[in-house]
Amino acid sequence: MIGDHSALDLILQASLIVQFVMALLVGASVVSWAIILRKRQLLVTERQAADRFEEQFVSQAASRTLEESMATGWSVLRGLPHNELARLSDAQIRRHLEEPARA
Is the residue at 67 inside a domain? Predict the structure, then answer.
């Protein structure tokens, strides 16, 4: 009777192919959850960067020069993971994000 078997008993009694497919499904589920959690972490980081951008760059209290605006923009980008800045070249990242902020 099916009602007398535990889930583990059913898995152990299944054919090798069925066990293999179940293992693949469990693996796919683990990978999917890892991707979901990574994307959630990335969204939190990006939301924090957007808040910093708005605080530092958009809502400026006084007028500033283009150089000051660019320095502020680079400082906001400095808080993001460099591997997520796909539109910046490696040279731009080295020049503007890895060097200490210039006064």
Answer: yes
